[in-house]
Each structure stands twice: as structure tokens, then as C-alpha cells.
Amino acid sequence: MEKVKLIILREYLTRVRKKSFIIMTILGPLLMAALFVVPVFLAQLEGDTKTIAIVDETGLFAPSFKNSENLNFISLDENVDSLKLQLDERNLYALLHIPLTELTVPNTAKLYSNGQPNIIVTGYVRETMRKEIEALKLSASGIDPEVLRSIKSSVNLLTIRVNEGGKEENSSTELAMAVGYIGGILIYIFIFMYGAQVMRGVIEEKTSRIIEVIVSSVKPFQLMMGKIIGVALVGLTQFVLWVILTLVIVTSVLSIFSGDIQSYQSSQLQVNKDPIMLYEPDGSSVDQPDANQNQGEINEAVIAIFDRINSIPFQVIIPLFLFYFIGGYLLYGALFAAIGSAVDNETDTQQFMLPVTVPLILSIIVAQFIMFNPDGPLAFWLSIFPFTSPVIMMVRLPFEVPYWDVVLSMALLVIGFLFTTWLAAKIYRTGILMYGKKINYKELWKWIRYKN
Hints:
Helix content is 66%, strand content 6%. By secondary structure, the chain is an alpha/beta fold.
């Protein structure tokens, strides 16, 4: 056991001291935090008012375009061909040309710009014209737009979970699906990433002939277990650091620049909602709701969001995520180590990698269907089968899987790890000292059946 500990310590310290580990440990949280923070600041850099010229040959649409904090529309009666060449000279962001057609109500327009117009501009133009066209068609048909507007309704469906004690809790199916699928993808990535590290490490030691010196004092099985567990601890360390550093970075940045971010969000709300939602196609404005009422609705929405987040059983999901991450890695890591010991270079691993990784790849593909029926028979069997349970069970966990299913899945995963370790040890023991021979499945079967 002491020798295994020494191997684990060596593998762990060797890898965590590498520049690649340090760089990825720092770079990973920065990239993940950037997904939350960078879009806000990039949008702020482009937060200047954009002037858009309108040449409306129909005379129907120009009055419908209302100015806002970020968009300024000016109606011009000039030649389009010359105007579209003077966008930079006249400090125009874009030119909207609505040509006169033979149709009573034209439905085509052209937006000229020196660059790619952003989605806010194109979305607002498209939506404003759509509303105006609908209003004109309704008017031509003798239908009062107010009547049609009054019958439009939206349905707000609240999902509420009732536990055994009769207590009601808000829930969110969409959030549960997202948490489960992200958890499954993370396990899928980590198993591949760290399993490949084990395989490459074995191949390097084998081809450099260092392994001949090592096995003179350590049994092959001890060496294999030490490498697998050592890399597992490296992966666990990196994952924990990623989570902690990401939370620290995001929290710090949001707290420092909370005022700027709130200002940006307010301006985006004005651009996205005010011009489109608060003005009708005929140019008349709708009474804007009271600010206090809006604030109350926002507060209620925020509370509802946090209620739905709290409905996800993270106190159960996080420990089980660590278990399935470690268990899945150990199961596949042993097989990756066996493959590395059986070949002389990484190119030869391809023929053995496919059968080993097919269940893992299949699980991430099937996970998309499991989300829609997490309690079905397919979800149950795949979540207890050791080779697919690390991914599939993570997809099911946010939907409150029965404890019996979780216990059975965990037990079978442990048994599966013990089985793959025994199988890999048989291959590792013979293959680690064999050089220059092309190995096939028949040869591997002989190694497995070989008895001491």
C-alpha cells in the first residue's frame, strides 16, 4: 500500500507542477467567467447612439420608427444610390430603403450598412414593419386593431412540486434539464480528458523503457492503480479550483461593476422593448405602465427565478456529481491504462478506443432524449448500467430520481470499476513489458485468460 501511495503522490505532484496544469487552471475560470461578464462590457463599448436614415417611398412606415436612447431614425428624401455610398461621411450607421412596389402593402425592405448590422437593429426594423403591415391589412379588412389587440392573451404556466408532506415548491423543468445536461457533458469531457492523460502517460513510460526499472520494485497492478488514482486527484483538484475561482471572479466583477451592468441592462430593456412594445404600428403611443408597478413585477420575477433555482436539489446533485465523476473516470481510466499498455504508440490505440468509448458517446447522444422522459425505462436502464450511468444519472438527478435507483446505480458503478480494474490489470501486466508487436483482440483475450 505504501508503494501505491508513493506512485499516487508522484503522479499528482508531477502533473500539478506542470505549466500546462497551472495555465489551464487559471485560464479555465477566466474563460467561464468571461461568458458572464464580457458580453456586458462588449455591448457597453458599442452603446453609442446609432443613426439610421430611412428612405420610405411608400410613406407608410417612416412614422412608425421611434427614437430611443440607442437608436435614432431620420427620414430623408434623397437618392438611395448616392446616399448608401455616403454612410461614413454622414455618420450614418445604416440606411433603410423601403421601395414602392405594385403591391398595396409592400413587405420587403433593404438595410444598407458598411458592416454587419447588429441583431437589435434588424429585429426592431423587422418587427416595426411587421406591425405596420398587420395594421394596414386589418384596416383594409374593416377590422379594428384594438379589438384584435384586446383578445391577444398569454399563458403563464407555473410548475409546482408537491412533496410527501404536502409542501408546495416552485420548480422549473427547463432549468432542471439544463442543469442535468450540463452536468452530463462535464462528466463526459472530464472522463475523456483525464482518461487520455492516463493512456498517454503509460505509453510514454513504456516507449522510454522507464517502466522496466519501475516494475522491478513495484507490481504492475500497483503501478496502474497509482497512476489512475493520481490522475483522478489531479482532475478533482482542477475541477474544484475551476468552480471556486469562477465564482470568485464572477462575484467580484459583478459587485465592482454592478452599477454599470444595471445601467446597460436598463438601456437594453429600453431598446428591446420600448420602441417595439410601447408604440403601435400607426405611430400612436400606448400608455406606459407605472414605474413602481414595473419594479414590483421585476422583483416578483427575480424572486420566482430564485425559487426555481432553489428547487434544484444541489445539495444532492453536487456530491453525486463528484461520485459519478470519480467513479466514471476510474472505470474508464482503467481501460484507458490497459489500452496504453498494449500498444507502442498513440496511433495504434484507435482500434481499441472505439469499443471502449462507444457507451460513453452513446450516453451523451441519448441524454438529449432522456431529458424529455427521465422516468422512462430507457432512462432507468441506462442510468444503472455502469458504462453509461455517469452521464445518464446526472441528467436524471435534477428530476428527483428515486433513492433506490441512485443506490443501485452507485453500487453497480463500483462493481463495474472493480471489474474493469481486474480486466485492465490482466492486460496491463503482460502488455506493459511487450514491445514491437502489433496487438489484436485475439492477443488481448489470451492475456486476459492467462493465469499466474
